[in-house]
Design goal:
four-stranded antiparallel β-sheet, 6 strands, 3 helices, alpha+beta, two-stranded antiparallel sheet
């Protein structure tokens, strides 16, 4: 990455469509979720710093804060962030795109530097 990357927090929440599924139909959604995370990890210009899963203490649909899970990454540029978010439109669960079950929001900024002189 030639310039400073964008420190990006991908916030992902599952929606009511996910919770409306019978338990027997949840596995394909989780497989698609793993495909999303694996594809994100392998994307050129994305360096994942860490992940955070809030599913143990937050149950039910997540249409905003708090989200279900988070991925913190350094991303090359805004088009790459856009491409990463677009994965929810292109990864399929049967005849539906993954966005039927999840929503995503990306927060972009710069790395916060904690200075010793203040």
């Amino acid at each position: 990455m030639a310039t400073e990357p964008l420190r990006t927090l991908f916030c992902v929440g599952n929606n009511q469509n996910f919770f409306d599924l019978p338990k027997s139909e949840i596995k394909p959604v989780w497989e698609a979720t793993m495909e999303f995370l694996t594809t994100l990890k392998r994307m050129d210009g994305v360096d994942i710093i860490g992940t955070f899963d809030d599913d143990a203490h937050m149950v039910g649909p997540s249409t905003g804060w708090p989200w279900t899970f988070y991925v913190l990454a350094d991303v090359r540029d805004q088009p790459t962030v856009k491409e990463a978010c677009n994965l929810l439109r292109t990864i399929m669960v049967g005849e539906y795109a993954l966005w039927r079950y999840f929503t995503i929001e990306a927060r972009m900024g710069r790395e916060l530097t904690i200075r010793d002189d203040v």
